[in-house]
Design a protein that fits this description.
The protein is mainly α. The chain has helices at residues 3-10, 18-36, 39-48, 53-81, 85-102, 109-123, 125-133, 141-169, 172-190, 207-214, 217-247, 252-281, 283-303, 307-333, 338-370, 373-403. It folds into two domains: 16-200, MFS general substrate transporter like domains (Growth Hormone, Chain: A, Up-down Bundle), CATH 1.20.1250; 203-404, Growth Hormone, Chain: A, CATH 1.20.1250. Helix 10 packs across helix 15 (338-370).
């Protein structure tokens, strides 16, 4: 390696101070908090408005539906402009508008519009990751992504903990109001985020590379598994689990405890899976075990007789679902050279949004026809399908290794 190349490897694209990092961290926490501050109460809020499970499923699923069509174009535009900061601001603005739209009474159109707006907000996330990575030397890329993954879970947890407490202490609209103020605070602070006038370049998302990337068998496999994983996640904690909790007598404040029971093990699993479980047991074994456990504990939600047992299912399900998501994220870009990784990641993020849409959308219809507990059986079926595919592809992978 030349001295010049080595210098680039050891220096960040954007020279930053400790204050720059602190500002970015706070904006990131505010971003995820405004996006998730109403998630635990959303389905109970919609049910209190007299909406059917079908309509609730449509509203919940619209979050992923928008991302299916917006994530990839936003990534393309961000790469073309080589600007990330405007997209961070777009995220804060749309997150704020999302909360505002939920507060408009009189029609189901407004919560649908609010959830769709939150899908636009979530689609801006790629800009955060690209800009934050530029604050680190390329040799510290893993550290940067580990940090920002932790910030993601932390921001989500902060928002979701506030959600139930605010709704219980004040009203449904208190959570949405908090989201508006959090979003505005994040937008104001985002002006201080450091990005040079010329922007931040990276190997861009490329339409030219897209066909080749999409045809890669490993990416197809990982994408299918991730779609199924997100079906389960958005049927359970980010979907109908809060409604199950309220049917068992949970107050809005007690929803906070159910959220903590799921999210803390979820975050813990994401930290230890790559560092300890995968090296010890192997990638495919960990993925298969995660789907097996998530399927069992998703179905178990339907049989929970009280809040204590429901909380236990959340602890176990949160850990199980936290096991496979970070592995799939790494596998999505693993086979590609650096010039194609942005394209692979853009495709992967857009495609797993199908699960965010399809899971709650289909579960809403199942709940309406058969009863709410059957939506969790559907989630279990998605996990079982993913387990079967994992076992098939593990065997195929083993054969390809033995023949090579």
């Amino acid at each position: 390696m030349s001295a010049e190349a080595n210098s680039r490897e050891q220096s960040a694209l954007i020279p930053t101070t400790r204050s720059d990092h602190i500002i970015f961290v706070v904006v990131t926490l505010l971003y995820w908090s405004t996006l998730y501050v109403y998630v635990p109460i959303l389905s109970p809020f919609l049910k209190s408005g007299g909406y059917s499970d079908v309509l609730i499923g449509i509203v919940l699923g619209s979050y992923g539906f928008v991302q299916m069509f917006v994530r990839f174009p936003l990534g393309l535009l961000s790469d073309k402009l080589q600007k990330r900061k405007p997209f961070l601001m777009l995220g804060m603005i749309t997150g704020t508008l999302s909360c505002l739209l939920f507060m408009i009474p009189g029609s189901w159109i407004w919560p649908l519009a609010g959830r769709m707006m939150s899908g636009v907000c979530a689609s801006s996330w790629v800009a955060f990751t690209v800009l934050y990575a530029a604050y680190f030397a390329s040799s510290e890329a893993t550290k940067a992504m580990s940090n920002i993954s932790f910030l993601t879970v932390s921001g989500q947890l902060i928002g979701m903990i506030l959600s139930g407490w605010l709704a219980d202490t004040y009203s449904w609209n208190a959570a949405f109001t908090a989201g508006i103020f959090i979003g505005l605070a994040g937008l104001g602070l985002a002006f201080a985020i450091k990005e040079p006038r010329e922007g931040v370049a990276r190997a861009p998302i490329s339409l030219r590379h897209l066909r080749e990337v999409v045809r890669t068998p490993s990416l197809q496999q990982v994408s299918m598994l991730s779609i199924l994983a997100h079906c389960v996640l958005f049927i359970t904690m980010f979907g109908f689990t809060p409604l199950k909790a309220t049917s068992l007598g949970a107050s809005n404040g007690q929803l906070t405890l159910i959220v903590i029971a799921f999210m803390v093990p979820h975050g813990l699993a994401s930290l230890i899976t790559g560092r300890w479980l995968v090296p010890r047991f192997g990638t495919w074994n960990v993925i298969g075990t995660a789907y097996l456990l998530s399927g069992i504990f998703t179905v178990a939600i339907a049989f929970a007789p009280n809040l204590g047992m429901l909380a236990l299912t959340q602890v176990l399900n949160g850990f199980a679902q936290g096991m496979h998501l970070p592995i799939l994220l790494g596998l999505a870009i693993q086979p590609f050279e650096s010039s194609k990784r942005a394209t692979a990641m853009g495709f992967y993020q857009a495609i797993y949004s199908i699960g965010m849409f399809a899971g709650p959308f289909l579960a809403g219809f199942v709940n309406d026809m058969l009863g709410r507990d059957y939506g969790f059986w559907l989630g279990g079926a998605f996990a079982a399908t993913a387990l079967l595919l994992t076992l098939i592809w593990k065997r195929a992978s083993a054969r390809s290794w033995s023949s090579s």
